[in-house]
Every structure is written in structure tokens, then in C-alpha cells.
Known about the structure:
The chain is mostly helical. The protein has one domain (about 1-85). The protein is about 80% helix and about 0% strand. It has helices at about 5-10, 15-30, 35-45, 50-55, 55-70, 70-90. Helix 2 (about 15-30) crosses helix 5 (about 55-70). The chain is elongated. The two termini are about 25 Å apart. It comes from Nicotiana tabacum (Common tobacco). Its main location: mitochondrion. Keywords: Disulfide bond, Mitochondrion. InterPro entries: Cyt_c_biogenesis_Cmc1-like. This is COX assembly mitochondrial protein.
Amino acid sequence: MGYVQEARENHVKKKVEEALRSKMKQKALQQCNHYTAKYAECASGRTLSVVWQCRKQAKELNGCLHQYTNDSVLEEMKKEYMLQQDRKGTT
């Protein structure tokens, strides 16, 4: 399959892509809730020192979030959305 054909198949409207990104971020936050809680606990009561005192927790949280919020995940969500739209169109 050529690049242009693949791009056409995975193309969605800007509003749809924004909604999919939002859904992806929500799912990531749910999946990484444990790391979010650890970071929040470390950051509690701190101001500037949070940057160096909570570096480990921030790195863990970012690592977890990146698993669920990257381009390949978004592309899969777009493909699933397009398949759902095709099913709706054929029924």
C-alpha cells in the first residue's frame, strides 16, 4: 500500500482528531493513575523544589503516559474510528 493511499485511509477531520487526542489523554491518565498519585504526593507542599525533589516520580509518570499517548496509539485510534464509520455507512 502506497503512502498516499494509507494517508487517505487514515485521514480524519480536525475536530475528530482533537476528540481522539482528548480520549487518548484521558485513557492515559486513568492507566497511569498510580504514578500520578505518587507524583502528587511528592509535590504536595513544595514549590520550586518539586523540580529536583520529584524528578524520579515525574520521569516515571512521563514514561507511563508516553506508552498511551504517542503517534502509533493515535493512528490506531484513527483506524478504529474509520472502521466504525465504515460500519455505520454500510448498515
